[in-house]
Design goal:
Elements (H helix, E strand, L loop, with lengths): L10 E7 L14 E2 L2 E2 H9 L5 E8 L2 H7 L5 E5 L11 H16 L5 E5 L8 H13 L6 E8 L4 E3 L5 E3 L14 E12 H7 L7 E5 L11 H15 L5
Parallel strand pairs: 1-4, 1-6, 4-5, 7-11
Antiparallel strand pairs: 2-3, 6-10, 7-10, 8-9
Length: 241
């Protein structure tokens, strides 16, 4: 995919990894959330981004492939069964996708973007800013991931089974606590050579990019679907979240 404007320094392979198997929510990646298969939110958000490269869905499942194939600018990559089981790493699918594009389309890339299909509230303009930030800091970091701010009062379990505050001296008032940041899995980008060398989306030197907590909502359980649908319906009505 190539669109006018926006990014112009690097060529990206954007991969939406979407296995068919899911224990928590059967067929999670095409489960209808607010009336739309979950994976379509990822596809449509990326179609709003100006970048040079291609958008691909990596899947082992025919039903998911059929949904993705509705979009004429999406390349469907059939993922081998040996890298599609429950414990298979996402990185294996990314490396397979890079090789597939080289073998079948003679395409090569500077970096690979991992766009998880489980973040339906992620926006195209956020992806755009994320990639622009990556390119501006390419001399410092070879990978970038999204984070969400969290000011919770965290507790941990001790060896005797009791619980204690992780930070005993943290202020009791939420507003006064120093924020922590959680990896929300919404977007990753990694230089191709770093991915191949480290076999990790974190590369050798990764930095974080903070996004709104709403955009970082990640669907893993049915309760997450209820939360996401409520937020999506509010957005459809034009309400502030």
């Amino acid at each position: 995919m190539k669109t006018d404007g926006g990014l112009n320094q690097m060529r990206y392979l954007v991969v939406i990894p979407a296995r068919g198997g899911s224990k928590g929510i059967p067929y999670k990646n095409i489960y209808k959330v607010a009336g739309k298969p979950l994976i379509e939110y990822a596809i449509e958000s990326m179609r709003e981004v100006s970048f040079e490269g291609e958008l691909a869905v990596s899947t082992d499942d025919d039903q998911i492939a059929t949904v993705a194939a509705k979009y004429d600018d999406v390349i469907v990559i059939k993922r081998p069964s040996e890298i599609s089981h429950d414990t298979a790493k996402t990185e294996a699918a990314l490396i397979h996708a890079l090789q597939y594009m080289k073998d079948n389309y003679e395409k090569d890339y500077d970096a690979i973007v991992t766009l998880q299909p489980t973040s339906p509230l992620r926006k195209g303009y956020t992806i755009q800013r994320f990639l622009e930030t990556f390119e501006k800091n390419i001399d410092k970091y070879d990978a970038l991931l999204t984070l969400s701010e969290d000011r919770s009062d965290f507790w941990i379990q001790k060896e005797d089974g009791s619980y204690c505050r992780l930070f005993p001296d943290a202020p009791r008032r939420r507003q006064e606590r120093r924020p922590l940041y959680v990896e929300n899995s919404a977007i990753y980008v990694t230089l191709k050579e770093s991915l191949l060398e480290c076999n990790s989306v974190l590369g050798k030197s990764v930095n974080g990019f903070v996004i709104d907590a709403v955009e970082g909502v990640d669907i893993n359980e049915f309760v997450d679907i209820a939360v996401a649908e409520s937020l999506l319906f509010q957005q459809m009505k034009g309400e502030n979240i």
